UniProtKB/TrEMBL annotation:
Keywords of the record: Signal
Coiled coil: none
Origin superkingdom: Bacteria
UniProt cross-references to PROSITE patterns, sorted A to Z: PROKAR_LIPOPROTEIN
Region (Disordered) residue spans: 24-49
A Pfam family of this chain: DUF2911
Secretion signal, residue range per the UniProt entry: 1-19
Protein name as it appears in the record: DUF2911 domain-containing protein
Chain intervals with Basic and acidic residues compositional bias: 24-33
Organism: Constantimarinum furrinae
Amino acid sequence: MKKSIILLCIILLASCKEASKEAQEVPITDKTEQNSTSAEPNKKKSLSPHTSAMAMVGDAHIHIDYSSPGVRKRIIFGGLLPYNTVWQAGAHMATWIETNKDLTIDGKELKAGKYGFFVIPNQEEWTIIFNSNWNQHGKDEYNEKDDVMRFKVTPKISEEIKEHLEYKVTKTTNDSGTISLSWEKVLVEFPFEVK
């Protein structure tokens, strides 16, 4: 009887070890499924991706930092963005422009530095604004008293739609260039010279 009890205990112990071993092993397909459910879901692509434009013109490094909203079948100027109202010239945070050299724009001097870039759109002319408060959300803290330069430009209208807002810094000579923004059917650009 003792022998049969010992034999029974050995059989039970062996079968428990086998069951425990099987419980610890996870088939490869299960591991794959576990990883796919615990993986971070794909992040939604931003409707207004953060981007920049920059160029060297002479000794000047000019950098524009902005978020680029899309048209998405909307009327932008005179619709989503009313005329004669200050706009931060991008989405989310205010667009900023930085230059490491003094520039001459519209016959005025823009000192080397970093500036909030704002515009006031209009059908006939746009007001371009460089503002000392470059780090703000949208135009929440915009104050005209912080403007360091204002001037007017005539917009160019295109038949083709530019889906996403785009800035360009283009070198035209060794010490001059243009800064432009285009979105929807509007192109606005102005020249500058490096001092």
